[in-house]
Amino acid sequence: MQKIAVCVSGGGTNLQAIIDSIADGTIKNTEIAVVISNKANAFALERAKKANISSICINPKEYADKKQFAAAMIDTFKEYNIDLVVFAGYLVVVPDEIIKEYRNRIINIHPSLIPAHCGMGYYGLKVHESVLAAGNKVTGATVHFVDEEADHGPIILQKAVEVQEGDTPEILQKRVMEEAEWKILPMAINLIGEGKVYIKDNIAHIS
Ligand code: GRF
Questions:
Q1: What is the rounded distance in angstroms from the CA atom of residue 199 to the CA atom of residue 155?
Q2: Tens of pLDDT along 92-107?
Q3: Closest CA to 148 of 189, 103, 109
Q4: CATH 3.40.50.170 spans which residues of the chain?
Q5: Model-level pTM?
Q6: Does the domain at residues 1-102 carry the CATH identifier 3.40.50.170?
Q7: Residue 12 CB less than 6 A away from ligand 1
Q8: Distance in angstroms (rounded) separating the CA atoms of residues 204 and 186
Q9: Is 110 a catalytic residue?
Q10: Which of 58, 78, 111, 146 is 20 to 30 A from 97 via CA?
Q11: For the sheet containing 2-8, what is the strand order?
C-alpha cells in the first residue's frame, strides 16, 4: 500500500481529485495518510476532514528557521510512513533538506507546460495571465518531481489544453484544472504506486 502525504495551501481541488480517484479505483493500492497545510484556514483541510483523512497545519512561520521547519515536516512524513509526498497547490518554498531526504519522492502539479510560465512567482492565476499575455494557443499542466529549483525537476506527465478566444485567466484556470490537473495528478500517483516511473539521466520515463 503506497502511503502518500498531500501538502496543500488553498482550495484543495487537486486534493479532492486524488480523494475521488482513490474512491473510484483510478488510483490503486494507495492511501492518503495525511494532509498537511501551511495555512490553518485552507479549505483543503475541510475536504480532508470530510473524507476522514488525518490533517495538520505545519506553518513555516511558526519555526525559528527553515531547518526547524524542515525537521518538523520530515518528522511528520516519517511518523506517517510516507512513501510519496504530493504538492497539490502547496505555496511554500521547500527547504533543500526536505528535497534531499525525499529525492525523487516528492511530486508537484503545475498549471502550465513546463518549462513555460513557471518558476518563482508563477502560481495560481499569475500562470494563466502569463499564458494569455504571451498569446499562447495551447497551455496545460505538468506533474514533475520536485528538486531544488522551483517547477524544475524531471517531468512525469503533461496534458495540453486549448486556449480559446475570450478566455480570462479565471476561465482558463478552470479549464486547465478540469481537463488536465485533475486527470494527470491522480494518473501520476497511480503510476508511481505501480512502480512504473523511473528516472534515467534526470529524465522521467514510464515503463
Ligand atoms: C492549482 O492550479 C495547481 O496547479 C497550483 O495551485 C492550484 C491549487 O489549486 N499548484 P487547488 O488548491 O488544488 O484547488
A1: 10
A2: 999 999 999 999 999 9
A3: 103
A4: 1-102, 108-207
A5: 0.97
A6: yes
A7: yes
A8: 17
A9: yes
A10: 111
A11: 55-57, 30-37, 2-8, 84-87, 106-110, 138-145, 155-162
